[in-house]
Structures are given as structure tokens and as C-alpha cells.
UniProtKB/TrEMBL annotation:
Key words of the record: Signal
Protein name: Prolamin-like domain-containing protein
Origin superkingdom: Eukaryota
InterPro entries the UniProt entry points to: Prolamin-like
């Protein structure tokens, strides 16, 4: 039950960040919005939450979500993580989050190659 509550909390954080900041970027940079829209459709909401929980928390990721992440692509993954990590509340630990993001990517690529 505690893990479920943690995932719900993470969902609300992601939704709040997206709602608060996507309109600003979409006005200034239509190419970034297009990439954002393209990336969001490539991965399930559950896997997106799992990925965010791994990078910004201490969760683990399933092999199936790793496959989705690799299919999403490195550019999409990097942009999503960088976008979230740039928020004022998180920027102090941005380097740590980007390292965890790279580690997650490497792990998922290795998982995808063995399947």
C-alpha cells in the first residue's frame, strides 16, 4: 500500500510539473513541444511513472518498462528527465538525477539486448 501511495504521489508531481511548465515552453519553442508530444505517446503512463521514480527516487524498473524506455529513445528520455530536473525544487541535485538517468538508460539498453 505504501508503494502505491508513493506512485500516486509521484504521478501528481509529474502531472503538476507538466501542467505548470509545458505551456510556457510550447509558446517559446514549438519544436520542443513537438518532441515532447512525440515522446509521450511512445511509453505507457505506468512506465513513465516508474522511470521518474527510479531517477528521482529509489524505485526499481521492470524489464518490460526498460524495453519501452529503449523504444522511446535516448533523446526523448534525456529531454524528459532534463525537463523535470530543471525545476527549481530539484535543480540543486540535477547532476545526481542526470547520472541516475544515464545509469538507468545503460541498464535498460543492456536488458533490451539480452531479450
Amino acid at each position: 500500500m505504501a508503494q502505491f501511495n508513493s506512485q500516486i504521489t509521484m504521478l501528481f508531481i509529474v502531472v503538476a510539473l507538466v501542467c505548470a511548465f509545458v505551456p510556457v515552453y510550447s509558446v517559446e519553442d514549438s519544436e520542443a513541444k513537438s518532441l515532447w508530444d512525440t515522446c509521450l505517446v511512445k511509453i505507457s503512463p505506468k512506465c513513465a511513472l516508474d522511470i521518474v521514480a527510479v531517477v528521482f527516487g529509489n524505485a526499481t524498473i521492470t524489464d518490460s518498462c526498460c524495453h519501452d524506455l529503449v523504444q522511446e529513445g535516448k533523446v526523448c528520455h534525456d529531454n524528459l528527465i532534463k525537463y523535470i530536473a530543471d525545476r527549481p525544487a530539484l535543480i540543486a541535485r540535477e547532476t545526481q538525477y542526470l547520472k541516475k538517468s544515464d545509469d538507468l538508460w545503460s541498464h535498460c539498453v543492456a536488458i533490451s539486448k539480452t531479450a
